UniProtKB/TrEMBL annotation:
This is Polyketide synthesis cyclase. SUPFAM superfamilies: Dimeric alpha+beta barrel (SSF54909). It comes from Kutzneria viridogrisea. It holds the Pfam family Cyclase_polyket.
Amino acid sequence: MNYRSVIVARIVPGSEDKVAEVFAHNDRTTRPQDFGVIGRALYSLDDLYVHVIERNVDPKTSLSKARGLPTFKQIGEAIAPYVTPYSKNWKVPADAVSKEFYNWVPATKAAPGPTFQTVIVARIKPGAEPDVARIFGESDAGPLPVEMGVAGRWLYSLEDVYLHLMERTDASLARAVQDNHGKPAFAKIVDDLSPFISAYNPQSWRSPVDAVAKEFYRWRVDG
């Protein structure tokens, strides 16, 4: 069984390469897998930083072992000039971990093949998680997600940050949106979500593709 943790923080725009270098050095010279970490991906959108960690052991067990190590402290110190807590109430690293409130995978697995991870960033109305989960549950019961190449989705929130993580069979979300934009089912879910979900940065948002975070680092234990 694998576990996923999604960390949310703020990042200094333009510092992605520096943060990537820190993790690349760590992942190359240490053995994160000894503490259950089998993969990680780093994303950013404007000033938001998203760190997706995949583990093969319970995160509580993994973190309790790792936090006492010099490497854990060194990473924190190295990225501190660039990555800072999102929450004003942050006290410990666990306060940066977003909460999963919905997940879905199709009942029938897609044919074997590569999948592509996409992270959509937006803002969520506080307390709206049950409504958003209900809307996606109703939509995912129909054919739309499979038609759009979605092989799985997981929704997370941290305060007013909303994260929509998708595994896709097609790398191009833009094309999927374009191909399905005229379908009533697509228009319905967009309309139903509008009271609860809004753009992370309204000034730069022009279309759903503008909500897709940019991946700037990826590592897996198997290469």
